[in-house]
Design a protein that fits this description.
This protein is of the alpha+beta class and about 400 residues long. The chain has 8 helices and 15 strands.
Amino acid sequence: MAPVSLVAACRSLALSTWLLSFCFVHLLCLDFTVAEREEWYTAFVNITYVDPATSELRTEKTECGRYGEHSPKKEARGVVVHPGAPQDRQACDPNTRFLVPGPAAWVALIARGNCTYKDQIRHAAAQNASAVVIFNVGSINANETITMPHPGTGDLLAIMIPEPKGREVAALLERNVTVTMTITIGTRNLQKYVSRTSVVFVSISFIVLMIISLAWLVFYYIQRFRYANARDRNQRRLGDAAKKAISKLQVRTIRKGDQETEGDFDNCAVCIEGYKPNDVVRILPCRHLFHKSCVDPWLLDHRTCPMCKMNILKALGIALNADCLEDLPLDYDLTGGGDGGALALEVVVLGGSSDGTLSEEGDSSVLLDPGPMASSSVASLVFTVETGLSDEEGSGEQNQLREKS
């Protein structure tokens, strides 16, 4: 049973390794997902101005802005101001000057440029801007905004708006229209990203798990194939041994007047029919007899007496290796019946020889002598038990037993 235990242990180990690896990868993937999570807020942008064509006060409010990553989430209000010189619209130059309308609060309108957001915001903050609005110039999607990174800019509010909205406000400023902008907090959003590191890690982990699984499957099926072949070999050996044992069993033809033909004699235990003259019967070492055509297939498959379950291989001393005998019972009850009485014998057989002697490791043996069965006599069972005695003592005890029987 050691190979089966080895396969079960390997199977449990492989399954446990796979489950632990899966849980480990799952937890790490969750950790990576949380680490790459981004929280950002939209901003409502409300602009108010007097239409120069109709002289009407117009107000437009849209949720088109997006707060910067390091910007405080608060509200701001002021007059929109852009850099005075056309070449400074991006405010990348530290000397950029804004057309500040006096001491009132104002909001800087800047186009996205070739410098960092941090520099643009700091240049506007240096002139006491209340908020900075950067419109996304040059993006593929016209209405796209991003969460601007701008560490170190303090508590100055900074948002990004789409390019069309920014150019609309800039056009009004070019026409000397006073535009007042109010910025309020919009919707909170939670966006998850998958980083390259997590993708690479998950891919490598998946490949490792697949390799482990394939290795386990290959090992499992190799072992299964080996044990299947070993089992088939054992079955063939047992079949050959059964054929050899059946060839050694006594065969007898029932004659008219034999006691087997009488009505009170037991029927064949296999076909449940009585014995008739000219029936060929097989006599087993336990002295039970059956129709030859009935019991031979049974013995070939089971190798035991249909009635008392005595193993004919052990009874006839046909030795098999440990692999073949591991599924056979080591104890059996040997009984013999007749008019004169019954004899029960229980032995543990570990080996034997082809001459009918069953040997045991304790130097004891049993000799079964299946002599011819007479129609009016009781089957005789002759045995000797050797327990370390000399040959003369053993033969003397054997003679005494024969005289008693």
